[in-house]
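ESCALATION

Customer reports they have been waiting on this structure for their group meeting. Please prioritize. Original submission:
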Amino acid sequence: MAMQVSEPNAVLARCLDELGWSPKALARKLNRVFGTGTVAESAPYHWRDAGSLPRTPLPVMAAYVLSQELGRTLSVAELWQGRAGDSSALIPADTDLARPWTVQGLEAIVEDWVMGGLVDRRRFLAISGAGLISVVAQYLDGTAGRGQYTPRLTEVVGGDPLIDQVEQHLPMLQMLDDEHGGARHLPYVGAQFRAVGLLIHEGGHSPSVTTRLIRALAEIGQLAGWMAFDAADHGLAQRYFATALRAAHQVNDLPLCAHILGDLSFQAASRGHPADAIALGEAARRASDAAPAAVRASVLSRVAYAYATAGRDNDFAHTRGTARDLIASRDDGADEPRWMYFLTDNHLDCQAGYSLVKMGRVQQKAGNTAKGRRFLDEGTQLLRSGAYEVPRGDPSQRRAMFEGAWLALGHSAHGELETACEVGQIAADRLDAVRSPRSAGLLRQLVEDLRRRQRNPYVRSFLPSLESALDRHAPSASHGR
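Update from on-call: job pushed to the front of the queue and completed.
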C-alpha cells in the first residue's frame, strides 16, 4: 500500500520538468525498462501531486530510471525525502565484481553465480560512465597481467566425455539465439552457464580440463550476455559480459576478449552512451590487433556504430571501410574462432545500414535535411540487401526482425510511409516467434513515428495492428537468468 502525505513531491516534479516528461511518460519508461505491468500509468501522478510513496521496489526503480535519463545520480533518499531506502533486490551490475584479475578472483565471481542459481531474485541495474569502465579498467590498462592458463591447453580435445559434451553443445546454444531471440531461451542458457561454473567451483580437474571449462564459461557467458542485451536486461548483460571477459582473460584468449569488449561497446551505444561505447570499442580494437581478420572486422563494426551514435560520421565511414577491407581480404583457409560463424560481408553492410539510418534520423531532427536524407538513402539501400525478408523457417529470424525494424524506421524518416508500413508489417509478423525486446523497442519507435502521420491511409490501416501486436507480445515484468 502506498503511503500518503499531504505535500506534493517537489523533487520528482522538478526531475519530470527537466526531462519534459509527464507522470505517464515516467510510468511508460518504467514499464519499458522493468517489464510490462511494473506500474500503472496513473500511479506517478499520485507520487508527484500527493507525495505518495510507491511500494517497494518502485522507489529504487524510479530513482534509477531518472538518474539514467538525467545523466546524474539521483539517490533514493533524495527523490523520496528519506522515506525509502535501497532494495536488496535491485543492485548495480558491478556489485562484488571488484576482485583481482586472477583465477581466485574469477572463482569468487563464479561462486556468486552458482550460489544464486535459479532462485536468484536480484535484478541488476545497468551502469555507465566511470562505473562501467572501472569494471574492465584493469584489463584495459594492462595491470591485470596475463591469465594463468595458456591457449594451447584448450586445443586438447577428448578423454573427458562431460567436457566434450559441454563444448559440442555451444554451437547449438547460439542457434537458439539466432532463431528465437535473446529473451526466449535466456533462462536455459543461463542455467548452462551456471552448470559450467559449478564444475569450475568443484575443482579437482587437470590443467587441461580446467582450461577447457574456463574457455567454455567465457563463450557461454558472452552468449548469455548478448541474449540478456537482446532481452533489454542490460544490467544482467553487463554482469555476464564482465564475467566472460575475466574467464577469457584467464585462458589468454585475446580474440574472445576483444569480441566481448566489442559487445559491451555495442550495448553502450545502443543504450545512448556514446562516450562509453567509444572507450570500450577502441579498447576492443587494440585487443584485436593480432586476431584473425574476421574478429578484427567484427570489432571495427562495433566501433563504427559507436562513432555513428556520437555523430562522428567521418570516423564511422573510415572505420566501416577498414572493416570491409578486412573481410574482402579474408583467407577462407585461415583458422578463425568458431563463434565468428555469423560474420559475412552482408552482415557488415547491414550493420552499416542501421548506423546510417540512425545518423540520418539524428541529422533530420537537427535540421540538416540534405545530409540526413543522404544517410537514410544509403542506409535503407544497404538494409534492403539483408535478412529482413527471409521466410519464417529461416534460422536468422532475430536478425531479420531487427534489420526489418531499422529499415522501416529509415523509410518512415524519409517520408516513405507506404513502404515503412509494408516493411514494418513483415517485422511485426515475427513477434510471435522471436522474443527480442531490443527489436520490439525499435518497432515502438516506429509507432511513435507513425502516430504523427495518422492522416496517411497506409498508416491508419497499419498502426492499430502494430500497436496491438506489440502489446500482445510485450515481455512480462519477470526476467530470466
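Sent to customer with the following note: The chain has 21 helices and two strands.
Escalation resolved.
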